[in-house]
Amino acid sequence: MTYQGLIHRYKQYLDLPDHTRIISLLEGDTPLIPMPRLGRELGCELFVKFEGLNPTGSFKDRGMTAAVSEAVGRGAGTVICASTGNTAASAAAYAARAGLRSIVLIPEGKVAVGKLAGAIAYGAEVIQIQGSFDDALSLVVEITQKTPIALVNSINPYRIEGQKTSAFEICDELGSAPDWLCLPVGNAGNITSYWAGFKQYQKGLPRVLGVQAAGAAPLVLGRPVEKPETVATAIRIGKPARGEQALEAAGQSNGKIVAVSDEEILSAQRMLALEGVWVEPASAAGLAGLVAESGVGKLEAKGKRVVVVCTGHGMKDPSIITESFASPKAIPADYRALAEMIGA
Ligand code: F0G
């Protein structure tokens, strides 16, 4: 049967109200890509769940199809979110699809160009906040408490319902849950969703490695970070809304939450790209955590089946690559010049 989107496929597992009216861009059903070379290096059976292949280029579409389907079904006319970029693009796309107005609040100057362009292209009203993601989130929470505007951040429980489906897909693909699941943690909606999804699906439970950027690691430090900073702008978050649940997922699964440096994140991004999977920096944090932990032998991932979740596509943040790269050499349009250049 042709694919009709993840609400349709997993409806019986999703706690969505009767008034839900499905708004879908055929999100989900993303590939679980085997990474044999990297896996050999790390001594495990490694897969990447490539969530960058969702319609707007990130995993947010899983939660957004659910949140917008519920909102439109209950008669909402406007949706709003705070975002480091991906949620904004996703909210804008699903609102456009549903014929709703969308308003997105982003931290000034800290959103990657592919995400901002997406939000604009899909017709969102984009507002920069002179503050952090956390400040923007407080504002949207307040305005949705005082007005009928629908909140589509992952505080919205339907976002979690939609995002659980990635855990279902992994189990369907592998036949059971992997031994380890490694993923980036920002506002902590996604780690909460995966853990809920694995528990519900009853195909085994992975140990969960949640990975934060060292400059934005409130869950590792055990306290909020007032001025989070990291090259992985998607997870530049100091007060995760679902922090408690992230700690619970790590604790209950006998996993852990760790922090990695920006250098480790960018190195993991290169490792993935050189095996053909280009992801944005935050999305490489899961692998960076796995590498860091495997290196010191603490993770016990040796010989195990490991799924690394790559949450967003590399094309979301092209400048991180182009800015660190001198422009390609120019040569005359001449065969000899080319032959000389490539040593042929
Ligand atoms: N990876 C990417 C690419 C993200 O965009 C985000 C979050 C995360 C990981 C972390 O997920 O917040 O559920 O722990 N981005 C949000 C946004 C905050 O606004 O797009 P989380």
What does this structure look like?
The protein has 344 residues and is an alpha/beta fold. The protein has two domains: 6-58 and 158-322, Rossmann fold (3-Layer(aba) Sandwich); 60-156, Rossmann fold (3-Layer(aba) Sandwich). The chain has 15 helices and ten strands. Helix 3 (60-73) crosses helix 7 (157-163), helix 7 (157-163) packs across helix 9 (189-201) and helix 12 (262-273) packs across helix 13 (285-295). The longest helix has 14 residues, at 60-73. It is globular, with a radius of gyration of 20 Å. Bound molecules: ligand F0G. The site of ligand F0G has 23 residues, from helix 4 and helix 9.
Topology diagram in text:
Blueprint: H1 6-10, E1 32-34, H2 36-42, E2 45-50, H3 60-73, E3 78-82, H4 86-98, E4 101-107, H5 113-121, E5 125-129, H6 133-146, E6 150-151, H7 157-163, H8 165-174, E7 180-184, H9 189-201, E8 207-213, H10 218-221, H11 243-252, E9 256-260, H12 262-273, H13 285-295, E10 305-310, H14 319-322, H15 335-342
Parallel strand pairs: 2-10, 3-4, 3-6, 4-5, 7-8, 7-10, 8-9
Antiparallel strand pairs: 1-2
Helix pairs in contact: 3-4, 3-7, 4-5, 7-9, 8-9, 12-13
